[in-house]
Specification:
With 276 residues, the protein is an all-alpha fold. The protein contains eleven helices and no strands. It is a multi-pass membrane protein.
Length: 276
């Protein structure tokens, strides 16, 4: 049996090898420096162009537009989620008619711009005014706010249906078999076993969809809805100050960032049992 007679003296840590300066790394440094310079210039511009009179005059209008934007997005997301569940079920159905109808709906509303859908609702449905008055729903489609809400709802329902369908299909088939082996009804198994697991998978895509809808909601300003972008256009038409749009961008960025942190908290909260 051999053994060491002397201990190896402690050695210093190896020197950190400097990475070579490649063209790609140099381009990255330049781009970061340009973005930092642009940020500094924007801050300086805001400070130099600060006008308390404009803030006092148009600040309440911005807050009103912010409320309109948030209410439109919140209601359309809830209504779209309700509509997406039967769409996702129909999309997975073995009935060819239901599957084809759901596929056609999702294909159309995911494949066309939200702006085009908004124009079709706001301008196109006026052709059917006599029929809509006959059934008593013309009061809904003659208002720009309701038309914007309807267009955003049917648009996000298509995206949410595909998100939900993918999440449901990601749940292991063994979950269905285990529920059937225990004698659990298919509807109860879907509601209490399959759907909760699918919603955890769909949580992050849902957050992305809400963020996209917040940014896409700005198109309703074109049909005279005074949301955040609508109020911004009004302020710019009176002042011709580009900072009106800069403040709108800051509002949108704040909303998105707050939602991102809130959604991350939800995800950590709902998936805490999966972390070890």
């Amino acid at each position: 049996m051999s053994y060491a007679k002397t201990l190896i003296p402690p050695q210093p840590a190896p020197r950190e090898v400097m990475k070579p300066m490649t063209p790609a790394r140099m381009a990255g440094y330049i781009l970061v420096a340009l973005w930092a310079l642009l940020g500094v210039l924007l801050v300086i511009s805001i400070i130099n162009g600060w006008d308390p009179e404009k803030f006092t005059r148009y600040g309440p209008r911005y807050l009103h537009g912010l409320w309109i934007t948030l209410s439109l997005v919140f209601i359309s997301v809830i209504c779209g989620a309700i509509l997406s569940l039967p769409l996702a079920v129909a999309r997975m159905s073995k009935n060819r008619v239901l599957n084809a109808l759901a596929y056609g709906y999702i294909y159309f509303f995911r494949g066309t711009p939200l702006l085009a859908q908004l124009f079709l609702v706001y301008y196109g449905l006026g052709i059917f005014r006599p029929q809509l008055e006959a059934v008593g729903i013309w009061w809904f489609f003659r208002e720009a706010w309701y038309c914007g809400l309807f267009a955003m709802t049917i648009n996000t329902a298509a995206y949410q249906a595909e998100i939900l369908r993918g999440a449901i299909e990601s749940v292991s088939h063994g979950q269905h078999e285990a529920a059937a082996a225990l004698g659990i009804h298919k509807f109860i198994a879907f509601r209490k076993i399959i759907l909760p697991q699918a919603l955890i998978v769909a949580l992050r895509p849902y957050g992305n969809e809400i963020i996209l809808l917040i940014k896409g909601s700005a198109v309703v300003a074109i049909i005279t809805v005074l949301d955040l972008m609508g109020e911004t256009r009004y302020a710019f038409s009176r002042t011709f100050d580009y900072q009106t749009y800069l403040w709108a961008a800051i509002f949108y960025l704040t909303i998105v960032e707050a939602l991102r942190h809130l959604w991350a908290w939800f995800e950590r909260r709902l998936t805490r049992h999966l972390k070890r």
